[in-house]
Input
Amino acid sequence: MKRGLIKSLFITLSLYTFNISTPIKADEFSIILIPDTQSYTKKKENITYFENQIKWIVQNKEKLNIVFISHVGDVIDNPPNKLEELIKIDNVCPKFLFKYITNNNIRWKRALNSLRHLEVNNAPIPYSVVPGNMDYDCWNNKKYNENFKKYFGAQRYLKRNWFLGYDTNQSSFAQRFNANGEPFIHIGLEWLPSDKSIEFAQNIMLDNPKIPVILTTHQYLKSKKKVSIDKVGNTPHDTGNNSPKELFKKLIEPFPQIFMVLSGHYQGDALLKTQTILNRDVIQILADYQFDPNGGNGWLKILNINTSKNILNVKSYSPNYIYSSNNIPNRYLDKFGNYTTELHIKKNIEFLKKHQLIHYREGQILRNNIYKGNIVKTINYKNNNALKSNKDILLSNTQTNEDYALIKFNGIHTNPKFQIPKNVNIVKAILTLTIEGDSKAKGSYGLYEINDNWKNIIKSNHKRDKIDTSKLLVIDKYINNINGTKSIDVTDSIKRWQKGAPNYGWLLRANDNSNLIIRSEKWKAITERPMITVIYK
Output
């Protein structure tokens, strides 16, 4: 099994025991996933399907122990007319023009009126609404989100005691909720999240390292010939979009709090279970029915978590659907939309309670101090062996040129402000690097633990015009076609340094005929700077 790929995917109807007609047991709770509602808000005759979904949720809050609601985005349908498609405004989005041709107020108001039912009885269920690609002022363009902010921006939630915060664009939000006495956090991210959006999510988890997290973003999982994490997006790019695959590598892989990801965008149902490099299982769920009759027939997803049986029951339900031969598909009978799978939620909670989690990254707050100690330098033997530092570093290995990068994190065992405590058991440690400057910079590399002072290594290898890596400890080697963020297991290095071996850092070398660009500690977007994640107890 390769890391980051499918560990297990099983749909077992024989174990499916969840029945919404009877109250659930004390060891169960439910989360509601609301798929894309764009086809409800688009037409007046369809909006009752959305309204009835919300009314049903409120009516069954106690019966099903509903603790949270997540809307996966595409609240409305945009663009509203042929003119917008004709001038391809999604590629330009001139502010002086879009106000006149994207007046979707009626659609936003329909959505707002539907969700108002959550505000009744002065005890609203905590909920999240994230923007989909249709929810920006120009279709598929994140330049402006004025309408989304107007109707579902931060001001809507500021007085809610379950609201944790929002990013600067008011496109990503965090909420907290309780389930059977245990705290949880939900983070809703904008469509194809930017590095700023990912940084917001990371900061929420850095402030709450002991709390399990559910993540929602509009476009993530897809299901065609096989279920996979989508690759669409500019990746990586500190001012643009991160593909879902890059989101997994930057956010989900190195942060073990995340145990579930919810998404829409692509029609149908899908389930993917992935094991991260930190040996944590992540359940990823897709649900979208916008092309069903009546804009979706009111189908929603009930995610019932049974903490005693360690299972997740997923059920498609509609408060509106009436079966007829002309009203298909009947998603009650769809095996891909109704299933049971393992979810060891108690085990996840206990893991976070019993273990300590620490992240080292330049400029990031660590134990109320800003960590400063990461060094990324390069050496080129054709350039007088000079050690250089820059915001990103090109490593090239050809017949006439060979570059190396020094990667070092100071203070992780010696600085009282930041050090890993002595005599603890280090369970896992990973090094996360973004090894790419643009989409053309693909190659393979070798990562080695350095066994001497950097300058001594340069001196001892000077006559060779290159470093003899055969005398260094191999950490990771010959990974082909690196393009984006990568996490590497460095547990053995961190353990050796903890026991007293000198921390000289690691050597990164581009393999033969490869070119790599590595982000350094000086890179503008903090999410692409090198990071060490350590789990210990």
